[in-house]
Design goal:
The protein has 207 residues and is α+β, with helices and mostly antiparallel strands. The protein has helices at residues 10-19, 46-63, 100-110, 177-183, 185-206, and strands at residues 2-5, 26-29, 69-79, 85-86, 120-130, 136-147, 163-165, 170-171.
């Protein structure tokens, strides 16, 4: 089985390869395969955007005569006090090319004076799969936390440095890679997808 992930984000690819390393599949990013196509993520939910990305890359691979399972994730940060912003626009919040240090500082500023019990937030991850026969499957997972008052930690990326996990007494960016893969929204969604892919591999093997 060859898996192509619809992302060029190296941080995501590191996590994906760690979590799915025991699947016995070749895992490539669309960037590694030289796929550079415009994808209009115009969905109103994480589920819609994940499907849009997966289908677009699957169509490109089919046009090339290549067969692979295409996976795509749409993930983001929902802050309850900010009406679940930035939500599906997490990657585009303040502009796609804006450094996350600036995005994080902006969110902390917008929550200035807001107490802990109203700083609740969650990371959401939806992973969509499109198979060569055009069948689809989807997983979703979340992790709950609060928005901190400063950036902390060097291990994560994106909004990880401002996402505090009271249960663990750490910011997401302070977690070790193994800890993060075990409890994170992406880690749990990928693990669920991996279990499903294993059943597909087994079914194919049994034929």
């Amino acid at each position: 089985m060859k898996i192509v992930f619809a992302t060029g984000n190296e941080g995501k690819m590191r996590e994906i390869r760690m979590i799915m390393s025991d699947l016995g599949a070749e895992i490539k990013s669309m960037k590694e395969l030289g796929i550079d196509i415009p994808i209009d993520e115009n969905g109103k939910t994480f589920e819609e955007n994940a499907r849009i990305k997966a289908r677009a890359v699957a169509d490109e691979l089919a046009a090339r005569g290549d067969k692979a399972v295409v996976l795509a994730d749409d993930s983001g940060l929902e802050i309850d006090y900010l009406n679940k912003e930035p939500g599906v626009y997490s990657a585009r919040y303040m502009g796609e090319d804006t450094p996350y240090s600036i995005k994080n500082a902006s969110l902390i500023k917008r929550l200035e004076g807001v107490p802990d019990d109203k700083r609740t937030a969650r990371f959401v991850c939806v992973i969509a799969a499109v198979f060569p026969d055009k069948t689809e499957y989807q997983t979703r997972a979340t992790i709950e936390g609060i928005i901190g008052y400063e950036e902390k930690g060097e291990n994560g990326f994106g909004y990880d440095p401002i996402f505090y996990l009271p249960e663990y007494g750490k910011y997401s960016a302070e977690l070790s890679p193994d800890e993060k893969n075990r409890i994170s929204h992406r880690g749990k969604a990928l693990d669920a997808m991996k279990k499903y892919l294993k059943t597909k591999i087994q079914a194919f093997t049994d034929k």
